[in-house]
Amino acid sequence: MLVILSYVVSVLGSFTALQLAIAIPNATSAAHRWRAVAAAGLAMGGGAIWAMHFIAMLACQMNVEVTYDLPITLGSAVVAVVSCMAGLAIAGTGLFNWGKLIIAGVLMGLGVTGMHYAGMSAMLMAADTVYNSTLVMASAGIAIVASIVALWLAFNLRGWGQMLGSALVMGVAVCGMHYTGMLAASFVPNEARASLVAGGVSGGYLGVGIFVVTTALLAAVLTISLLRQRQRSMVRI
């Protein structure tokens, strides 16, 4: 069930971010632009990417007890949000072109990759994590390509149908990056690390709780954004 919820929250986060990104190139001042960048970055980095990642991590079936280091986990969320904000700011400021898009996409993709592996390092368990370097590089490649696609979609698509379709595709891309990264990891038992488990956070309903809270926040932000867009269109009329 958590796997399905992780995809749903990724799609909702992507759709919300695409809606919010409309305001970036249309901003009438630097302050408005940065507010739009922050809002879209939070939706993409915090909702579509980090929440999806953490919910999917909790869905991972392990043969040992696993808890999560809270500061590292929260730090990984900051990495995701900041990298998405940076990508949106670079691609959405001034004249849109492929050069800026690729630079922004690479920066954002590397940030997403860093978020993923920082999140993996937050796992506290009686095991060591060993990575397949080929699959790690593949996950980074998927993250970069997905980021470039996300940024292109954010500044080139309009209309509910197009954005929904794009969000569904983005959900697949984000999940693909995550599960490729998980496939790259092997866990070798190490009882010397067993004492670390007690220092982390856990809980059987943690994934569902994150889904409910994230979904509620994204839905509220999306509703407010759509109402503001409707008010602006009525004023123009």
From TrEMBL:
A Pfam family matched in the record: MHYT
Listed transmembrane segments: 6-24, 36-58, 70-91, 98-118, 130-155, 167-188, 208-227
Entry-linked InterPro entries: MHYT_dom
Residues annotated as domain MHYT: 1-188
Keywords: Membrane, Transmembrane, Transmembrane helix
Gene Ontology cellular component list: membrane
Top-rank lineage group of the source organism: Bacteria
PANTHER family in the cross-refs: DOMAIN SIGNALLING PROTEIN, PUTATIVE (AFU_ORTHOLOGUE AFUA_5G11310)-RELATED
Protein's recorded name: Integral membrane protein
Source species of the chain: Lysobacter capsici AZ78
